[in-house]
Write a structure and sequence with these properties.
single chain; mainly alpha; mini-chromosome maintenance (MCM) complex, chain A, domain 1; 5 helices; globular
Length: about 140
């Protein structure tokens, strides 16, 4: 990568990825037939049960397929981009599933992301608020 991408651009690129990526081999559960037209991560956000957690699990191979420069930046500078990536998830959830932000009388839910299927195995989650463990079902 020629130079470090500003965090604001990473956020914009990641929001575009979340709002538009459709997995070719999408095995995630689809709650309704009408949801098939929705991008993969929009559908996952809408289907999320916030009582079970607010982490959006992202297949890193999808990021790399969508934008290899974005994927490289996330791996190389994951600590610096932590906040931008979390804000991107929050932005996407607010736009496509605003009811998920509601948290009773307390402040709104905060959303996080955890990446799995990294080259060499492993997960990027410690810095993105996700819980360690297996990828989503």
């Amino acid at each position: 990568m020629a130079g470090k991408i500003p965090a604001s651009q990473i956020k914009e690129k990641f929001v575009r990825f979340l709002e538009s990526f459709n997995a070719h081999d999408d095995h995630e559960a689809i709650s309704q037939d009408a949801d098939r037209a929705l991008p993969t991560y929009v559908r996952m956000a809408r289907d999320m049960d916030t009582s079970q957690g607010t982490t959006l699990y992202i297949n890193f191979e999808h990021v790399n397929e969508y934008d290899p420069q974005l994927a490289d930046a996330i791996i190389t500078h994951h600590l610096e981009y932590d906040e931008a990536l979390r804000q991107a998830v929050q932005t996407m959830v607010a736009k496509y599933a605003p009811e998920k932000l509601e948290n009773g009388d307390r402040k709104p839910h905060e959303f996080f992301c955890s990446f799995y299927n990294l080259a060499g195995g492993g997960q990027l989650d410690d810095h993105f608020g996700g819980e360690k463990g297996a990828a989503p079902h």
